[in-house]
Write a structure and sequence with these properties.
The protein is mainly α. 74% of the residues lie in helices and 0% in strands. Helix 1 packs across helix 5, helix 2 crosses helix 4 and helix 5 packs antiparallel against helix 6.
Length: 142
């Protein structure tokens, strides 16, 4: 049912966005300070990430008990792929972008609501980078 799917998506998005905003994960300065382990290191995001492990572990346990999800006909889990050059290059590029900007996709979208100017610029160019990567991947695959 589309209405139920929209409601679940809205609830999950609001919950995720509120969590990012309240925890400080949407604050680029805090994220950069977290990544600056040799300088002005701010360890508070360790607690955010550690706190996320508990509900995620519970969710995985519950998922293992279910034959199908509560809001879908089947689980849509990604395939397990080997570690390859494309994955490593993507991880390095993601890390560089995260370190420079202090933003990754989720917090950037939250940032549009909190600090629209700089976050919107980041999101526009993030989408551009994703499109460019997709074009390169298509050329490699053909």
């Amino acid at each position: 049912m589309v209405t139920r799917d929209i409601a679940i998506g809205l609830f999950a998005g609001i919950l995720f966005g509120a969590g990012l905003a309240l925890s400080g994960m949407a604050d680029p300065t805090r994220v950069r300070d977290f990544l600056d382990i040799l300088g002005n290191w701010d360890p508070t995001l360790l607690f955010v990430m550690g706190g996320a492990i508990v509900p995620m572990a519970i969710a995985w346990f519950v998922r293992m008990q279910l034959e199908k999800p509560l809001a879908a006909s089947r689980f849509a889990l990604p395939d397990t792929n080997p570690i390859d050059a494309r994955l490593l290059l993507g991880a390095v590029l993601f890390g560089i972008g995260w370190g420079i900007s202090g933003l990754c996709p989720g917090p950037a979208l939250v940032g549009i609501a909190l600090v629209p100017g700089s976050a919107l610029i980041f999101v526009v160019f993030m989408i551009f980078g994703m499109l460019m990567a997709r074009l390169v991947a298509r050329k490699e695959d053909s």
